[in-house]
Design brief:
The protein has helices at 2-27, 34-42, 46-58, 66-77, 82-93, 107-119, 125-133, 138-150, 172-178. It is mainly α and 179 residues long. It folds into two domains: 1-32; 33-178, Serine Threonine Protein Phosphatase 5, Tetratricopeptide repeat (Alpha Horseshoe). Helix 3 (46-58) runs antiparallel to helix 4 (66-77) and helix 6 packs across helix 8 (138-150). The longest helix has 26 residues, at 2-27.
């Protein structure tokens, strides 16, 4: 009897987790149809580019590829997507670090991208920028000011972060024709 009760409790708990995951996927654009988000990102949609970068950074499965996340956030950030600009800052500040990340810590770049996100009214960017401002050297401040002055014509990607067609993001019908 105790085993059955324990089994029922576990089943109900698991059902709650699954329900929450399904709700999150429905509420997050592009989470259910990876092919569509990839297509829209390639077509220049800044929200899709931000979502694609977020999926590379923090998404489901084995897609964790920080340079690709940076690439897509840069594309979205160039179009004024405030969340993408903020996430670029977190990568360079080392607050969103994945094991084996190829993104070098750079407080000047983090400060610059937080500043750009703040200009686009990101809620948390001002606090992050102010925190970093206290620690910047004069040289780092000059470097940050240069990035801000020349943005969006300033590169923020790493040289090795070229967009690459990932079969997981290609729409199902196209993937079937390439296999």
């Amino acid at each position: 009897m105790k085993k059955i009760l324990l089994l029922c409790i576990c089943a109900f708990s698991l059902a709650g987790c699954i329900q929450k995951a399904v709700h999150l996927a429905r509420e997050t654009p592009g989470m259910m149809d990876r092919g569509l988000i990839y297509k829209n990102a390639m077509d220049g949609d800044p929200e899709a580019q931000y979502n694609l970068g977020t999926n590379y950074c923090c998404g489901p499965g084995v897609l964790h590829e920080t340079p690709q996340a940076l690439y897509w956030w840069c594309q979205a950030g160039r179009q004024g997507q405030k969340d993408a600009l903020y996430e670029i800052g977190t990568l360079f500040e080392n607050t969103r670090r994945l094991v084996g990340s190829e993104i070098p810590v750079d407080p000047a770049k983090a400060y610059a991208y937080y500043s750009l996100a703040e200009k686009h009214h990101h809620k948390e960017a001002g606090v992050s920028r102010a925190r970093l401002e206290k620690t910047l050297s004069p040289e780092d401040r000059d470097k940050a000011d240069e990035i801000i002055r020349f943005w969006p014509n300033m590169e923020c990607e790493l040289p090795s972060t070229l967009p690459k067609p990932d079969p997981l993001w290609i729409p199902d019908e196209k993937r079937r024709s390439t296999i």
